Amino acid sequence: MVFNADDGSGLITAVGQFLMPASWSQVLLLAFLGYILLNQVRHYQKTPANVATINFPAVYIPLISSWIAAIRFMKNPVESVCDGMAKSKNGLVRIATLQGEFILATDRHKLAEYIKAPDSILNAQDGSNDQQQIPFTMGYGVGHRTYHTAVVRGPITQNIIPKTPMMLDEALRSFDDLIGTPVEETPIALYSTIAMTVARVANRIYVGTELCRNEEFLRNATDYAEAVVISAEVLRNFPEWMKGFLVRLLPVTSYRRQGRRLLAPLIQDRLDGKLDANGEKHNDLIQWLIDAAPPVEKTIPQLAERVMALNVASIHTTTMTFTAALYSLAAEPTKYGPALREEVMANLEQGEITAATLSKLPKMESFLRESGRFNSLGLMAMQRNARKEFRFSDGTVLPPGAKIGSPSLFLHRDPEVFEDPEMFNGFRFYQPHPEPGTKPKTMLNTDVNFHLFGHGRHPCPGRFLAVHEMKLMFAILLLRYDIRLKPDTKPQPFWIGTMSLPDTKLEVIFKARK
Questions:
Q1: I need a surface site. Which of 117, 179, 360, 429 has the fewest CB within 10 A?
Q2: Same structural domain for residues 28 and 127?
Q3: Domain end call among 132, 150, 166
Q4: Which residue ranges traverse the bilayer (predicted)?
Q5: How far apart are CA 393 and CA 439, in angstroms?
């Protein structure tokens, strides 16, 4: 192939001849692989040198080594981190993924150090925006104008107790619709049942009965929650300037659009000042958001994407956590079912589940906390992105641009902290006779040894609602059904990058109690 360097048309012809045999998919693939290589270089320059590495070749080759390590990590992420922990001398491990390089704090003392850092140095919102690609999957405002956090800490949390009766009503209706009263042992798809029930219960207090029982809205909300997770993993592989275009090609954008369409009439009524049946201002999420939103956010599109984003927060983690807990119950129903059921029955008020009932269930609290410990959700919890240099007490430095997180899967199974950590013990945290002045730890309590809901400066503000919902649903299921796994079956969690997800297809046997 020959062309005249002084002739621009010759260069164009040469490029055209080179690209002609290739399809657009091949061109995009080459561009994608090229970006991954550049991404590895960029992240390699932002990781400390004195940290144990995982899966890197013995002989370092610029670009190639990090890519090889990423491919090896994808094949077996858990074993990779195990190897890194064995090699590490300072509680820090460097991993490579297709999204770049990250530092894992595999030692609880290192975890305690970095989560205390101010956001001006190690930023939690930057970490969340990166992990979930929030500005693209949920909306720019959700990632950068986080006024909704105050709404979660304030009116949502404050209304948990007074709105318990309507949450109970919705959970009962949902289980009636999805499980019914099977007189014979009946297989039920557990994950989808819990996801739909969580969506109904949360949206009963978010948007009311008009939408919380709307099949299209609920299905869209649950599908959107799953799409955010998957879309984020895809988008993290691409440069920022491409993400705005690429996200439009992913299902997550369609779900956002559908959510906005369904929410628009309700939001418009509120913006127009429509009152409730008693002539008072509505007491639900849409009104709380309108009251708290800055002027730029008081529009239908902005408010709708905020409601959808809070649906993701409400549905995804709660569903995964509670499904895993029910799998643990179904695996050993005779060991835990009777004791948990008896505890609920002993605390009913006039035969009903109330908010007071849910506050008096220490065995259930222990079971849920143990499930959160044992069924940890991944290898990169509490991600922080370094805006400035951060120095650990041993002198190890995280340079600006570095990304650090902690592997809950391993820290929750530390043998120095937990006896027989590889065994599930549902009553591990139950104290039948607590010492005066002490309280048993619940799912709400975070520390360096238990961080299902984060820890430090930024624990999950929605954990109070999530735990309340789980206890409410758990109490109903214990009273109404016997639950067990099918013979010769067990949950098979799967991995997406550094995140572990519960088995979403497994059916569990339900039978109505007499």
A1: 360
A2: yes
A3: 132
A4: 18-38, 50-70
A5: 32
Query: Are 295 and 346 found together in one domain?
Result: yes
> Domain check: are 185 and 124 in the same one?
no
Q: CA 136, CA 479: separation in Å to the nearest integer?
A: 42
Instruction: Please give the Cα distance from 301 to 256 (Å, whole number).
Output: 10
Q: Is 460 annotated as a binding residue?
A: yes
Question: Whole-angstrom Cα distance, residue 510 to residue 484?
Answer: 7
Copy the structure tokens of residue 259: 């959510």
In a domain? residue 389: no
| Residue 437 pLDDT greater than 50, yes or no | yes
Which pLDDT does position 66 carry in this prediction? 80
CATH of the domain at 354: 1.10.630.10
Residue 233 has pLDDT above 80, yes or no: yes
pTM: predicted TM-score of the whole model, two decimal places: 0.89
Question: Residues near 375 by Cβ (< 8 Å), separated by ≥ 6?
Answer: 321, 324, 325, 327, 328, 493, 502
pLDDT at residue 2 tops 50: no
Q: Can you read off the two tokens belonging to residue 140?
A: 């720019």
Residues 194 and 107 reside in one and the same domain: no
Size (the chain), residues: 514
Closest by CA to 405, choosing from 70, 26, 17, 81, is 81
Range with lowest mean pLDDT among 25-29, 88-92, 130-134, 281-285: 25-29
91 and 232 housed in the same domain? no
**What pLDDT was estimated at residue 4?**
40
3-state helix, strand, coil in the chain (%, to 5): 55, 10, 35
pLDDT digits (tens, 9 = 90+) for 325-354: 999 999 999 999 999 999 999 999 999 999
Average pLDDT taken over every residue of the chain = 90
Whether residue 229 sits in one domain with residue 107: no
Range of the domain at 462: 138-377+413-449+452-512
Per the structure, the count of domains in the chain is: 2
